[in-house]
Amino acid sequence: MNTSESAPRHPIRVVARRTGLTTATIRAWERRYGAVSPSRSDGRQRLYSDHEVERLGMLRQLTEAGRPISMVAPLSDDAARALLLEDRSSAPRPAVPETGFQPSSVVDRAYNQVLEGDAEGLERTLWLAAASLGSRVFLEEVVGPLLARVGEAWVAGEVDPGREHLASDVIDGALARILEPSRSSNGPGLVVATFPGERHGLGARLVSAAASLEGWRVSYLGTDLPATDIATLAVRVGAKAVAISVVAGDRLAETVHSLTALRELLGPNVDILVGGRSAGLLDAERLPRGVSVLNGFEALSLDHRDGR
Fold it and tell me: 261 pLDDT band (50/70/90 cuts)?
């Protein structure tokens, strides 16, 4: 192994994006099975080498073939590569979804895995659902309802913060995989974010992933951003629309104020779309002109919007 391959230089979120694993799974594989041994920065942040990124990618492929991580984590790199080659040469047929594989049953299974704190099981369930149902159905009938169910349970105290964070991490990873192809899209630009005080980003991720399937070129900015920052980026990328996710129901007045500021900063030629669990609670009469509340993903369809 040369020096560059062993140099610790990748933070865990970069590794998650490159390997397709969630950060929760990477940590679990490290802690429980010794799959990799990352270094630590001066600030105690995990840093992974190119070699460790490659190894995690191989282990993911081996587990997706049906092997438990406990079986493949002890393998040497050479043994793991040999097993991958064996898998590829056997040319297995694509998995066939089980009879009666319904989105509602997937949501039930995923929610139970959240309650059990089973990050690996949740990741596998979501991966199978996306592959079996297709991205569009996966977003509309699995991720959306699952987010709503976890959110309601968190508010009711039925899901503790640790399990809520676990679910957020795994779902965020699944949505990021869907969003990734949009980076090379030639479609119209869409900026997605949340306003100050809104730190729940999964709704924005969900809108980003749905929009990417419709052909938008998505710029996902994250959470807790002022209207000035959102508008600056939207102008810079030539966005045709800005989408704002509203989850918290106790900041509606502040949200209207931020929407008004955003409308003034963007001018009349950039659409503003509002979605999320609490978007329907906004007073339509107080919304500035040119702000639309999303009612389902159909409103993101470019054909639908061209025909307005």
Answer: very high
The CATH number of 103-178 is which of 3.20.20.120, 1.10.1240.10, 1.10.3470.10, 3.40.50.170?
Answer: 1.10.1240.10
For 186-212, what is each residue's pLDDT tens digit? 788 999 999 998 887 888 888 888 888
What token pair was written down for 174? 């699944």
What percentage of the chain exceeds 90 in pLDDT?
Answer: 29
* pLDDT at position 97: 46
Question: What class has domain 3-90?
Answer: mainly alpha
Q: Which residues belong to CATH 3.40.50.280 in the chain?
A: 185-306
> Whose structure tokens read 């390997």?
19
Sign for the CA dihedral angle at 150, 151, 157, 160 comes to positive
pTM over 0.85: no
